[in-house]
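<tokenise_the_fold>
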Amino acid sequence: DYSTLGGWPEMKGVGANSVMSRADQSFETAAQRGAFQLRQVCRDLSVRPIATYDSEYGSAAFMNLTEDIPADLLLRLRPNRCLYKAPEPYSGSGRPRKHGDKFQLANADSWGDSSATFSLEDETVGQVQIQQWSDLHFKKAAQRNFQVIRVTHPHCSGLWLAWVGNRCHL
């Protein structure tokens, strides 16, 4: 497996810099390798970065491995993922629930109302719709809530993203 971590400084006209690039067999999974690289880079930064990852990293394993890393994450989600909403408030009897209702990306009936919606007209693809749902989590990472964002336009039935961080407001 081969992995590259790049950086984009906040300067106009500056391209990407390769921060870390390696072929490494010492990690069992891509999630372990990605978390290791992010941890290494973040320890040398003076600002909180935004890290973007493809759908291979949109998982409970990656969420758990990056929980203590000071970075905001934007992860692409596979469209067959099943997430969970926040549980109802504790009723006072029995063990408190960790998970609420299922939120299946492939089943619109499970989504409920979005917490925010935004639309815009793009001259290339036409009408773009963006929906956001808050306080969702993976079953095996119930302690790590995130926001889910769905982007659609006439040529795309749905791009699903997870935002784990503090700066996402539609």
